[in-house]
Amino acid sequence: MLTTDGATDATRRLDWLHDIAALLWPGAHDMSTGVPAAEADFWLLPNANRPRLLVPGGSRRAAAAAVRHYGEQLSFQGRVKAAGLAAGLRTGAVQRFLADGVALGRGTDNGITAHLADKLGQDVLVSLHLSAPRANRKPVLQVLSTSGETIAFVKIGVDARTSGLVRHEASALRRLSDASFQTVRTPPLLAHDVWNDLDVLVIGALPVWGKRDNDSSRGHRAMTEIAGLVPATEQTLGASEYLRRLRLRLEQCNATPAQASVVDQLTDLVTVAGEQPLTFGAWHGDFTPWNCAPVDGRLLVWDWERLTDPVPYGYDRLHHDLQSATVQRGVPLAQAAATVIDGAPAGLRAFEVAERAARTTAALYLVELGTRYLNDDQAAAGGHGGRIEDWLVPALRTAVHKL
Fold first, then answer.
1. pTM exceeding the 0.85 threshold for the entire prediction
2. DSSP codes, 287-304
3. Closest by CA position to 55, among listed 100, 120, 107, 112
4. Residue 85: which pLDDT band, with cuts at 50, 70 and 90?
5. Structural domains in the chain, sorted by start
6. What sign does the dihedral 107-111-116-118 (CA atoms) show?
């Protein structure tokens, strides 16, 4: 358990933790790590060399529950390891070896925990996932009862970008509460307010611990239901409202060589495929294996901060395929992007998208993703794939050339 990802990664995650702790628990500027586990407000797991999760100290059940839920979003092997760690926490076998306790100092007297207890009407404990650096990184808290039951999840906007995403997700969840889904199950919106100048979104917990199954068609049905949130419309690419909005967003990005390349490729794409008819609907915006779970005949789907319409049918399928390849299977980004382009006709056939329309859609998806990365300034944040000129732009150029 004492492996190391590298000092740079660990240091960046811990620096972020110090900054976030000072926001969430005002007075925690004197936060310290490495205190004995018995004296800690939180435990840092697996350790300070590989910081991934901050769990409540002093409650075996709550700490174990936090680890179990974190493990639900991992691979099968990761879930097995998380289950073992959770069992060790629950029995107390692990704590004696934890040297990386965290003390908040004066921060324990007030802060987000007290605010959430007031909102939810009961005493609560929280855990915090220490994610990798990216432009839209924000605190995501798991809220637990003192007995270890998962009550809710909380997203907190800490700057203009993340606050905008939090507000958008709050709006999306209100909208989704009226959706007549048969396959998709969405989390309930419990509260959305501003605390200490931070946007705080409280979302009900979905039962990810339920019985899972392997219905391979459920993902497609879910994507189709999401696309149908708005009536399907058919327009040529060149005359579409989507293209108008995409161009506007791209023009609003900082002027860089990468941005100029995407603009040029979009111009070429419209030149060769502007008369291509496309069907438009909605998309989740980040439909990935770690944002959903097949449970009890439904697909639990969360993280709705990118829900958007209109977009061409099939975006969620393409995004799922790209992210699955790069994050879960470790396929290099350039290779994964090329595979998505080549596989688009087969992948979008279930959405009744013809071959040329599918290739056009795949090229547009790369423009969409590139625009997101540019708008978020992922390169400056050190986010995975942030340098789109190294992988996305070449793949986009190839996709346009093949049309």
1. yes
2. --GGGEEEETTEEEE---
3. 100
4. low
5. 7-204 (3.30.200.20), 218-402 (3.90.1200)
6. positive
